[in-house]
Design brief:
Blueprint lengths: L4 E7 L6 E7 H77 L4 H9 L9 H8 L8 H7 L15 H5 L4 H38 L9 E4 L2 E4 L6 E4 L2 E4 L5 E3 L4 E9 L3 E9 L2 E11 L6 E2 L4 E5 L9 E8 L2 E3 L9
Helix pairs in contact: 1-6, 2-6
Length: 337
């Protein structure tokens, strides 16, 4: 049996006393083992604590990044919402244009209003050169200035085509692409609106321009100088005479508003239609008038009946076209003749 022991002498400098402590070898080894175990436990606890501190810092960083991503998502979502609204307006306007032009092919309508479609590989500067002038172009820095809080790198050099070369999918490039799409859709929407207004105006002009015969019959007297049927003397004939059976319908050759209804000794029962754009038509010698003053009429609406009222040698319609109150040859406004 091992009876080894360790004696420790403890002395005091003040009192001069000396004490001795004797510990067996077994207890000494046990103490050493406990100290080593305590050191290992403390070391492990310290490492674990440091890990928790690092993890806490990482969690804070992740929370901050999550908040940043949330804000970025909100910005992107608002831009996409704007883009979707713009595209929906373009779709609505395109539908209206299709109705105006009677074009069923939507691609043709879009080409009329939007021009050439940019290619996928076409860079943004090329697209903008096609859509607006150099003075109107907004550089990428203007887009990124609004999103500076989200950026970690400086803006790419657009002049060197870095934007398209990198093909990066970070937020900065995504933001630029969305802004470009929003602006492009806005420009195209304006193009559709301008085309719609132009087509509506042209359609209004077309609808208001007389272009058909107001009555079925044959021409008996043209516009210009002729021999007066009652006196035989040369006189200016300001209209076009069309002979027809009494009571034959007289139709409006274009859209307009009835601007005059009355009776005149020379013209008999007469009415006039104002078609807008300075164009006015007159219809004389009617037996009956079916419209009232201020009434709106459409092309081919029946407005009166052929007669022989007034100074007339037989049943016929006297038809006049006046542009800015100047009589013009009505034959130029009859396309089906």
């Amino acid at each position: 049996m091992d009876n080894k022991s360790f004696t420790f002498l403890i002395t005091s400098n003040r009192r001069g006393e000396t004490r001795s402590v004797t510990i067996s070898a077994a207890w000494f080894k046990a103490g050493i083992a406990l100290l080593v175990l305590a050191f290992v436990v403390m070391s492990a606890a310290s490492v674990d604590y440091l890990g928790l501190l690092l993890e806490q810092g990482e969690n804070k960083r992740l929370v901050a990044e999550n908040e940043q991503l949330t804000r970025q998502f909100q910005v992107v979502e608002s831009k996409l919402t704007s883009l979707e609204s713009s595209l929906e307006r373009i779709k609505t306007l395109t539908t209206k244009i299709k109705l105006i032009t009677n074009i069923e092919d939507e691609d043709r309508v879009m080409k009329l209003s939007l021009g050439a479609t940019p290619r996928i590989e076409q860079n943004f500067s090329d697209m903008e050169n096609e859509e607006r002038s150099e003075n109107e172009r907004e550089p990428a820095s203007e887009f990124l200035k609004r999103d500076a809080m989200f950026m970690e790198r400086p803006p790419l050099d657009e002049a060197r085509n870095e934007l398209m070369a990198t093909r990066s999918r970070d937020y900065a490039n995504l933001s630029i692409r969305i802004d470009r799409a929003v602006k492009s859709s806005a420009l195209r929407e304006q193009g559709v609106i301008r085309l719609q207004e132009l087509l509506q105006e042209r359609q209004s002009i077309l609808n208001a321009t007389p272009n058909i015969k107001p009555a079925r019959g044959w021409f008996t007297s043209r516009f210009g100088y002729r021999g007066d049927p009652f006196t035989g003397k040369p006189s200016m004939h300001y209209g076009l005479d069309m002979a027809a059976a009494p009571g034959s319908p007289v139709i409006a050759p274009a859209d307009g508003v009835v601007s005059y209804v009355g009776y005149e000794s020379g013209y008999g029962k007469i009415l006039a239609i104002d078609h807008g754009f300075g164009v006015r038509t007159r219809y004389a010698h009617n037996s009956q008038i079916y419209v009232e003053l201020g009434q709106k009429v459409k092309r081919r609406d029946v407005i009166s009946a052929v007669g022989t009222t007034g100074r007339s040698s037989g049943p016929h319609l006297h038809y006049e076209v006046r542009v800015n109150d100047v009589p013009v040859d009505p034959i130029n406004y009859i396309l089906n003749e």
